[in-house]
Amino acid sequence: MSEPLILVLCTGNSCRSHLAEGILRQALGEGYQVASAGSKPAGYVHPLAIKAMAEIGLDISAHESKHLDGFLNQPVETVITVCGGADQVCPMFPGRVNRHHFPFDDPAHATGTEEEQLAVFRRVRDEIRAVFEAYAAGRKDEMRRSA
User: Fold this and answer.
1) pLDDT higher than 70, residue 97
2) HEC string for the chain
3) What confidence category does residue 142 fall into, taking pLDDT thresholds of 50, 70 and 90?
4) What end-to-end distance do the CA atoms of the chain give, in Å?
5) Which residues belong to the active site?
6) Which residues pair with 34 in a beta bridge?
């Protein structure tokens, strides 16, 4: 049996989805594939997202901003959207998959000095970490019960 693919989606695939991908990959460990993508990819991973993750020992510097179309023909088991406010359009993924929506503020919209912007990235990272570590713990418990 192949590893279940969990896809984290956002609009730009530059911040939140990469934070979540890195945290979820570490929290789940072996036995799962975790990827992220966007409906309108920015084409880069935000440098402050990379910096905020490095502070907690996770290296996402090799991540790439990807379009969700690249996953349409793959066996996606779960889709998790992380877009925040109601004014943002979160991508939807076709097919019969498990769906979750965990909305977070977009740190890419932070203003001020680099340190002030980094503070927003840290806050969102920590919020994502709390939610996705809890999600991972639930998945692992579910896996143990069905084994």
Assistant:
1) yes
2) CCCCEEEEEECCCCCHHHHHHHHHHHHHCCCCEEEEEECCCCCCCCHHHHHHHHCCCCCCCCCCCCEHHHHCCCCEEEEEECCCCCCCCCCCCCCCCEEEECCCCCHHHCCCCHHHHHHHHHHHHHHHHHHHHHHHHHHHHHHHHHC
3) confident
4) 13
5) 10, 83, 90
6) 6
Q: How far apart are CA 66 and CA 33, in angstroms?
A: 16
Residue-wise pLDDT for 58-77, tens only, equals 999 999 999 988 998 888 89
Q: 21-47 b/e with 16+ CB inside 10 Å = b? A: bbbbbbbbeeebbbbbbbbebeeebbe
- Distance from C-alpha of 145 to C-alpha of 29, rounded to nearest angstrom: 17
